[in-house]
């Protein structure tokens, strides 16, 4: 009878023990930028920190604590631990997202840390769109398919469009980019079949758009079917989807594949 009482007493505390035990820390995919790999070890429950490693030499360059966890001694310690859940680099800023959804922005030049809800960062859309970056874009950045002289830009929302820009039946991606050396803006079009990247603007002139799309504040997909449906004779014959780029209440133009290269078709002054 005594043994049964002890067993029942222990079972009564099982829900408490279950609640007091947290799951293992998440394994975070490293972020690579300018030949530096940023990792979140997630091996210290009292502080969340990142490490920077040289990709070529595999030498640790520096370590930085992003946030610390206040531990209340009257409570189970492990349930108070908060770890890093995701890393990404955008426009020279390392974005660190915690398990609670808090986002920290780290300036990779100064290593200054700010939280996204209090900062007036030049890339406010980066935080909101961090979870919605297609794999093909991440692959282009991580594997060096997107030349290192460019970085993603979040200046216009959405920052990427999906369409069949080549006309081969495969989904391609067009994403906003910025040339690092000049700050000039443009569009990188990633071939969905080959991962080949073509950049227009951002230092590569095209039609009246020039080599800097700083003027552009709106863009959208102009589907091949739309041109046929609207029977718009002012639009050239399209063999694929196109990009409709423009400046609000001003000029607009189509960027489309003519079978050999991407070309510019002006639609307004």
Strand-helix topology:
Blueprint (H helix, E strand, L loop, with lengths): L1 H11 L1 H7 L10 E3 L2 E4 L7 E8 L5 E9 L15 E7 L2 E6 L4 E5 L5 E3 L8 H6 L5 H8 L7 E3 L7 E4 L8 E8 L5 E6 L6 E5 L16 E5 L1 H7 L11 E5 L5 E6 L4 E5 L3
Low-confidence stretches: 4-19, 117-131
- SS class: alpha+beta
Our count of helices gives 5
Q: How many domains make up the coordinates?
A: 2
Estimate the strand proportion: 25-35%
What series of H and E elements makes up the topology? HHEEEEEEEEHHEEEEEEHEEE
The helix content, as a percent range, equals 10-25%
Global outline: elongated
Provide the gyration radius in Å: 25 Å
β-strand number = 17
Residue-averaged pLDDT? 81
Give a short account of the largest sheet. Answer: 5 strands, antiparallel
| Amino-to-carboxy terminus distance | 92 Å
């Amino acid at each position: 009878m005594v043994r049964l009482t002890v067993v029942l007493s222990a079972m009564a505390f099982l829900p408490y023990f279950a609640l007091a035990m947290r799951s293992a820390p998440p394994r975070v995919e490293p972020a690579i930028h300018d030949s530096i790999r940023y990792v979140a070890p997630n091996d210290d429950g009292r502080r969340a920190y990142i490490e920077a490693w040289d990709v070529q030499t595999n030498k640790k360059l520096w370590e930085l604590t992003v946030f610390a966890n206040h531990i209340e001694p009257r409570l189970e310690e492990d349930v108070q631990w908060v770890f890093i859940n995701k890393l990404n680099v955008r426009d020279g800023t390392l974005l660190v997202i915690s398990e609670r959804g808090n986002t920290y922005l780290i300036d990779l030049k100064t290593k200054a840390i700010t939280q996204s809800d209090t900062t007036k960062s030049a890339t406010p859309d980066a935080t909101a769109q961090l979870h919605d970056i297609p794999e093909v874009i991440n692959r282009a950045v991580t594997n060096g398919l997107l030349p290192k002289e460019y970085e993603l830009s979040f200046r216009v929302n959405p920052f990427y469009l999906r369409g069949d820009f080549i006309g081969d039946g495969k989904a391609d991606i067009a994403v906003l980019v910025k040339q690092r050396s000049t700050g000039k803006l443009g569009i990188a079009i990633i071939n969905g079949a080959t991962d080949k990247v073509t950049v227009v603007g951002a230092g590569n002139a095209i039609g009246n758009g020039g080599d800097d799309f700083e003027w552009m504040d709106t863009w959208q997909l102009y589907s091949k079917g739309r041109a046929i449906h609207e029977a718009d004779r002012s639009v050239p014959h399209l063999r694929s989807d196109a990009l409709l780029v423009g400046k609000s209440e001003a000029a607009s133009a189509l960027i489309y594949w003519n079978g050999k290269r991407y070309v510019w078709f002006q639609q307004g002054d």
